[in-house]
Amino acid sequence: MIRCLIVDDEEPARELIKLHLSGLEDFEVVASFNNALDAFVLLQKEGIDLVFLDIRMPKVSGLELIRSLKWSPKIILTTAYREYAADAFDWEVFDYLVKPITQERFMKSIAKFMHYWSSQAEARETTKSNDGAYLFFKVGREQVKIMLKDILYIEGLADYIKVHTADKSYIASEKLGFMEEKLPFNLFTRIHKSFIVALDKITSFNADQVMLHDKSLPLGRLFKASFFKTIQKKTSG
Predict the structure, then answer these.
(1) Alpha-carbon distance 70 to 75, whole Å?
(2) pLDDT tens across 179-223, in order?
(3) SS3 state at 81
(4) Taking a C-beta distance cutoff of 8 angstroms, is the pair 198, 191 a contact?
(5) DSSP E strands, the chain
(6) Would you say the C-alpha torsion 77, 26, 127, 116 has a positive or negative sign?
(7) Which domains are present in the chain?
(8) Are strands 74-79 and 95-98 parallel, antiparallel or unpaired?
(9) Residue 226: enclosing H or E segment and its boundaries?
(10) Which DSSP category does 60 fall into?
(11) Distance of CA 162 to CAs 12, 169, 218, Å?
(12) CA distance to 50, 55, 64, 99, per residue, from 81 (Å)
């Protein structure tokens, strides 16, 4: 079951999202709030998978809520204002819905989320059941098989990525954001807008960088909180 939270200061907007979700059996609305402060408190206590979040709200805005979280679930912003889109995606939101939200546009967003959710589930199962997990990457005209255990880090290069292993690097036709969704989150983590690293290859880190043996990679400001949370989970778990 996918646990959802709705945060919007307008009741009709909250009710519309509930209505859109009501026909989807895999989604559960855990809570619905008219302010970001109550949402912040809940997110410290409850495991939430998906948040539908308005931007302009009294006292604390949706973007301020995102910035306040040490770790955040996937967030779909719901707003009447298009001009926040660029800032929103800088904060790695999952999707951006402009009010009034039609059923068709809402379902496109849900379909995108379900693709992400199922790919993560498949990746987790693959990791559990098969130490020989791998992915194929489009390198030039070929599909090249790379074992996940061999990947040190992946570097984003606009519409391409560079997959670094101990022996070789490959430039593949893919975007870093898609790879972030496709790779098992218990094995890889995003540390910067341009870098994803293999957790088991990290040898040390500090507030500004992550070390993979003799390779130093920058730890981006927007990714520090989620990175530290991931490391804490790995250490305690």
Answers:
(1) 14
(2) 888 888 888 999 999 999 999 999 999 999 999 988 999 999 888
(3) coil
(4) no
(5) 2-7, 27-33, 50-53, 74-79, 95-98, 134-139, 142-147, 151-157, 160-165, 169-172, 188-192, 195-198, 204-205, 209-212, 215-218
(6) negative
(7) 2-127 (3.40.50.2300), 134-236 (2.40.50.1020)
(8) parallel
(9) helix 224-236
(10) S
(11) 46, 6, 16
(12) 21, 8, 16, 8
The 8 Å CB, 24+ separation contacts for 166-174 are 170/137, 170/139, 170/144, 170/146, 171/139, 172/137, 172/138, 172/139, 172/144, 173/138, 173/139, 174/137, 174/138
Asked whether the whole model's pTM tops 0.85, one would answer: no
Which region holds residue 140: left if phi is over 0, alpha if psi is between -120 and 50, else beta?
A: left
* DSSP-assigned letter for residue 205: E
Q: Which of 15-24, 121-130, 178-187 has the lowest mean pLDDT?
A: 121-130
Read off the tokens for 10. Answer: 């307008």
The helix/strand/coil state of 61 is: coil
pLDDT tens across 19-37, in order?
A: 999 989 889 999 999 999 9
The answer to whether 220 and 90 have CB atoms below 8 angstroms apart is no
CA–CA distances in Å: residue 106 to residues 98, 112, 117, 142, 167: 10, 10, 16, 36, 44
φ and ψ at residue 192, rounded to 5 degrees = -165, 160
Whether residue 212 contacts residue 153, with contact meaning beta carbons closer than 8 Å, is answered with yes
Where are the extended beta strands (E) located within 15-73? 27-33, 50-53
User: Three-state SS for 235?
Assistant: helix
